[in-house]
User: What shape does this take?
Amino acid sequence: MGQSQDLLRNYSVLSVLGVGFSLVNAWFGISAALITGINSGGPVLIVYGLILIALISLCVGISLSELVSAYPNAGGQYFWANELASRRYANFASYLTGWFAWAGSIFTSASIAIAVGSGDVGCWQLAHPDFVVRPWHVFLGYQTVNIFAFFFNCYGRILPTMGQLTFWTSLLSFITILVIVPSKAPTHQDAKFVFATFVNNTGWKNNGIAFIVGLINPNWAFAGLDCATHLAEEIHHPEKMIPIAILGTVAISFVTSWTYAIALFFSMKDVDSLVDTATGVPILALFYQIIGNKAGAIALEALIMATGVGCQIACHTWQSRLCWSFARDGGIPCSSYFCKVDRRLNVPLRAHFMSCILVAIVGCLYLGSYTAFNSMITACIVCLYISYSIPVICLLLRGRNNIPHGPFWMGPIGLVSNIVLLLWTSFTLIMYSFPPVLPVQAGNMNYVSAVYAILVLIIVVDWFARGRREYKSQDERNDEAAAPLLRGSVSEDGDDRVSRA
Assistant: This one.
């Protein structure tokens, strides 16, 4: 919609669901960010936080599904903002949305790479107890995962199949761990520990603040729900299929992550040993604590890492499509270069390469400051929420009934979902900026506000230096999309005149 067709429509609804779920993969997210949850609420945070975030994610999914059903386009949220905002502000609203969405995808990719890299190094440390984990070890693992996902995404024709493969890999890994961990645990916790034990190691005297700070764990597990919307030009009937993929992702993610968390907490013995583990990977320490065998613990962690690699591949698919479609509309510097699609590979190779380079650069910050790096991980959640909120604000200002509705339209339920999304975005923008622990020091400060400031500075400078002149308006985009059709019409008319002559 509103663009010429540049990519092949070779995705099925299962492939899109596979990519979407592979990226979100909430049970993997719980595993990777377990340390935050343990310190900031323990079992209570994870068990009830997942329910809360799943309900909010359902509202987010409904809001995104309504918009993609009405306006299917690979640009996703930035395209919707351009279509829904008033003419005076449409370009800047769209431009702002695109930058926050792309930044969110880069930060998300970085967070997945660090989780898989940490798991790899942690397994080595568990097998070699004298080995001391250093930041550069994790950095090498990070870059290895990033490079692998880059090359894998260079072959567009295998990506739909890969989406289905990673989907089933994740589910099989989840089932395997869900069966083995409780069955191998020498003892089991009672229901009170799982459903009523609150742990506060943050230094915050107010348990409510500690709980809110810890919500970053389950919230990160549901990040990236817009992934499927950016495949709108690679699937038939996107106005029907993509809402199925989005809401299916939310449903499967909640069921897997919640049952997974319950199984872990019933099987857990000692919380403190997970926090202080030499591996730096609490979930790996938990497996070893339960099984009592290093090889078995590493094997289970390998399943999580395999799921994480699939997650990273899906994330690269997402960020490359977002970068390419945004460049197609003049949203980034050198857009004319990055908007090209490699016809042989059927991928936006230049945009893909650019996004991977940025992920690699973000990873370099891990060497300098683990705290600064974690702040950008937090930023991925809020940046994506902001990118969802801008088109929703434009929709509400325009009037929900003043746009052409797609096949998926929820009426009053959609309105409630829009309001929940906006309220939660405002909440996270403020509360996720709080320091995770007290007392605050340079080494544990939450620098996410600085990340926001730098991102806004980049956006403002680029807008006034280039964007306000080069970014395409609604009319320019529609004219470009109509040009091939007009040329075809002229050609057919000419052929008719020749044949009559």
